[in-house]
């Protein structure tokens, strides 16, 4: 199945085509439904923001694409990566050896959510960056200069590179992790909350850096809680709720005319809008309702919502809702 391409992203072949991705974690006496039947296409030059409340499955999505989930995870579905040269590869089926040699870092970069734990503790930032660059073909001499340039790009001072990860503040570690992911110049970057711990100017600086990657042909999947960040740089926004995408459309449409009541709720929570949180709490992913998972919190829910809504084409995007805000209020 090919997902609808939200208008504004062009109709070129997708760099990444995710189809029916499902992730379950087996625990001793229960199962966590972390990602459910998730489909999306990401095109060269596109910045897709994935937003949603904490625990809805955003990071698990990124980790599933890179084969980084623990052994209690079961992953099904497909995620085809179409490199510019060579045959497409299904990231879910391809196996650890290929992921380690050809994909992670090289074809798909990851800015991890917790850089402090992801950075090798016994090497300085300079050494980490130089090693990464050399592993991706930079000659030793050129690597030193390139490391300083990339560090400057993310807002690190050259002297910051001489520190070990434990000597860096959270924000500095975040920037170093971003620099390490950008260094091999991957055509696809998964950035999981890349602005955590940064002050506003550095947030904007990092977002603009990601945007520029897309403007030169890369694709970025930006995982963020920060809707203002998504609005600033994303071409399209996918809203996740309780393991599923519930709405996905071009950024201006999503912010100006949200169709899913949950999207509208997230927007109403913004300080420059109603500043009212979405009432209630998301369901446990171990105990999802049979129908629409948002129904218990939704002002428009009716009996129809006992049936799970399918994610279908809607305007220039995709929507999973029986009673969208763009239709008449249910009786
Ligand atoms: N190894 C694991 N075993 C069991 N459950 C897990 C595991 N890893 C993640 N989960 C669960 O999967 C769900 C999705 O987690 P995920 O980290 O993707 O959320 P998220 O949307 O990225 O949240 P946040 O924004 O807080 O990072 C959560 O309920 C989480 O507890």
TrEMBL record:
<feature type="domain" description="ABC transporter">
    <location>
        <begin position="16"/>
        <end position="267"/>
    </location>
</feature>
<dbReference type="InterPro" id="IPR050388">
    <property type="entry name" value="ABC_Ni/Peptide_Import"/>
</dbReference>
<protein>
    <submittedName>
        <fullName>ABC transporter ATP-binding protein</fullName>
    </submittedName>
</protein>
<keyword id="KW-1278">Translocase</keyword>
<keyword id="KW-0472">Membrane</keyword>
<dbReference type="Pfam" id="PF00005">
    <property type="entry name" value="ABC_tran"/>
</dbReference>
<dbReference type="GO" id="GO:0005524">
    <property type="term" value="F:ATP binding"/>
</dbReference>
<keyword id="KW-0813">Transport</keyword>
<dbReference type="InterPro" id="IPR013563">
    <property type="entry name" value="Oligopep_ABC_C"/>
</dbReference>
<dbReference type="InterPro" id="IPR003439">
    <property type="entry name" value="ABC_transporter-like_ATP-bd"/>
</dbReference>
<comment type="similarity">
    <text>Belongs to the ABC transporter superfamily.</text>
</comment>
<keyword id="KW-0547">Nucleotide-binding</keyword>
<dbReference type="InterPro" id="IPR027417">
    <property type="entry name" value="P-loop_NTPase"/>
</dbReference>
<keyword id="KW-0997">Cell inner membrane</keyword>
<dbReference type="Pfam" id="PF08352">
    <property type="entry name" value="oligo_HPY"/>
</dbReference>
<dbReference type="InterPro" id="IPR003593">
    <property type="entry name" value="AAA+_ATPase"/>
</dbReference>
<keyword id="KW-1003">Cell membrane</keyword>
<keyword id="KW-0067">ATP-binding</keyword>
């Amino acid at each position: 199945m090919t997902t609808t391409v939200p208008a504004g992203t062009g109709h070129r072949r997708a760099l990444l085509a995710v189809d029916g991705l499902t992730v379950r974690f087996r625990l001793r006496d229960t199962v966590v439904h972390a990602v459910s039947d998730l489909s999306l296409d990401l095109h060269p030059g596109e910045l897709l923001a994935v937003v949603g409340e904490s625990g809805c499955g955003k990071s698990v999505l990124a980790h599933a694409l890179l084969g980084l989930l623990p052994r209690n995870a079961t992953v099904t579905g497909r995620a085809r990566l179409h490199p510019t040269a060579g045959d497409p590869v299904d990231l879910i089926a391809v196996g650890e050896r290929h992921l380690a040699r050809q994909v992670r870092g090289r074809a798909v970069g990851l800015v991890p959510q917790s850089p402090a734990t992801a950075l090798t503790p016994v090497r300085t930032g300079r050494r980490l960056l130089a090693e990464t660059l050399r592993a991706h073909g930079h000659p030793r001499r050129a690597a030193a200069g390139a490391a300083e340039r990339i560090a400057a790009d993310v807002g690190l001072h050259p002297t910051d590179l001489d520190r070990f990860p434990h000597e860096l503040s959270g924000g500095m570690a975040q920037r170093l992790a971003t620099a390490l992911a950008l260094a091999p110049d991957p055509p696809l970057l998964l950035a999981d909350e890349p602005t955590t711990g940064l002050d506003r100017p550095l947030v904007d600086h990092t977002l603009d850096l990601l945007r520029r990657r897309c403007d030169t042909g890369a694709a970025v999947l930006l995982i963020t809680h920060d809707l203002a960040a998504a609005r600033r740089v994303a071409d399209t926004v996918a809203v996740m709720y309780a393991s599923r995408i519930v709405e996905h459309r071009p950024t201006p449409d999503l912010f100006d005319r949200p169709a899913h009541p949950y999207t509208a709720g997230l927007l109403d929570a913004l300080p420059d809008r109603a500043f009212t949180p979405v009432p209630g709490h998301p369901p446990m992913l171990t105990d999802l309702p049979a129908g629409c998972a948002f129904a218990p919190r939704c002002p428009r829910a009716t009996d129809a919502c006992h049936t799970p809504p399918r994610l279908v084409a809607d305007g220039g995007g995709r929507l999973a809702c029986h009673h969208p805000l763009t239709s008449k209020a249910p009786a």
